[in-house]
Design goal:
The chain is mainly beta and about 350 residues long. It has one domain. Helices cover about 15% and strands about 45% of the residues.
Length: about 350
């Protein structure tokens, strides 16, 4: 297939069912972009209209986002990775990519963004995998966009084979858009074909290829108190845990309630399983003072699947509430570590 002047939009098979054909297992919607790529960390999105009016979906524009909601702070991260060729040991490589977390605030709105990707120039076998999440919220409404290069390898052998034969001019990305007004979420997913050479550094080029609306949308009524995205839910849980996890009486997770959130018409529960206060955390990118090491879990209410991850975050000064280290395993044979880069950030 030739990519001409833009992306080729392919309706998501999970949303398209031929007449007279039953919805089988092959059409089941897979785990969300956020949990699979990052089951951990924080941030940003696109919304339209005034703070008192419902958001209207449109093609994502960074210029428009910056005009609506200015950057409050932004931090960069070094990405390290380990693979486990056999069960007995891990093989690791540092600095194979980068990540960025951005907080925005202004005019009654908050925005969280999270970008993560491998760098083909540094990653083993020139792997080029990356994704992005953005969530913009006001008091009643939210707009969420998530996009990730498709990757469904279940074993390291499958990953090696797929990397060895990736020689096309086009790559497939899975995108999901959700508009939330009050307690109603309208979501849809799509597959977007983009030039294979695009990396996380060319995020805006990819975003420009994503249509304003998926070919099919579904509506979900949200229970009261549901957070409007993974990033805002994690940010809320981190802020709620700072005092109890730091307390001298060892209160830990006592009083830190589980938070429910929605992503792509699915409800999840996020909880803090345990936490430890560390006066000093030494990492490869530097030393961080006053840190809480938290172990989190996300549970899919539909499938009952559980995903665990760790985030260490500051609890004082300029790094209060900021992740300084995160560890997650998108596959049993792969572990990803993010470390705050002290040389970059605002």
């Amino acid at each position: 297939m030739i990519l001409a002047r833009g992306a080729v939009l392919v309706p998501d098979p999970a949303l398209v069912r031929p007449v007279g054909v039953r919805r089988g297992r092959g059409y089941e919607i897979k785990a969300p972009i956020k949990v699979r790529l990052v089951a951990a960390i924080v941030l940003g999105v696109a919304a339209f209209g005034s703070a008192s009016e419902p958001f209207q979906q449109a093609t994502f524009s960074y210029d428009a986002l910056s005009a609506r909601v200015p950057v409050l702070r932004e931090h960069s991260y070094v990405v390290n990775a380990k693979v486990r060729p056999v069960l007995l040991f891990w093989i690791g490589r540092d600095n194979i990519g980068a990540a960025r977390i951005t907080w925005r605030k202004g005019a009654g709105r908050r925005t969280f963004e999270f970008l993560i990707g491998s760098d083909p120039a540094r990653a083993p076998r020139q792997i080029n995998r990356w994704g992005f999440i953005v969530e913009e919220l006001d008091a009643d409404n939210a707009e969420v966009l998530g996009v990730m290069r498709e990757s469904n390898e279940e074993t390291i052998e499958e990953a090696k084979a797929k990397t060895a034969r990736q020689d096309g001019d086009v790559s497939a990305f899975r995108a999901a858009r959700t508009s939330i007004t009050g307690n109603r979420a309208v979501s849809g997913t799509m597959t977007v074909l983009a030039p294979a050479h695009l990396t996380y550094r060319e995020l805006e080029a990819l975003l420009a290829l994503i249509p304003a609306e998926p070919p099919s949308m579904r509506t979900l009524e949200l229970p009261p108190g549901t957070q409007k995205g993974f990033l805002v839910a994690l940010d809320s849980l981190i802020r709620a845990s700072v005092v109890p996890c730091r307390s001298a009486d060892g209160a830990g997770t006592n009083g830190v309630i589980t938070i429910s959130y929605v992503y792509n018409r699915t409800l999840y529960d996020m909880s803090l399983l345990s936490c430890d206060y560390e006066p000093q955390l030494r990492a490869k990118t530097g030393t961080f003072a006053d840190v809480v090491d938290g172990r989190f879990q996300v549970r899919n209410r539909t499938t009952k699947d559980e995903t665990k991850f760790r985030v260490s975050y500051g609890i004082s000064g300029e790094l209060r509430g900021v992740p300084v280290r995160a560890v997650f395993r998108p596959r049993w044979w792969m572990e990803i570590e993010l470390l705050l880069d002290l040389g970059k950030g605002t």
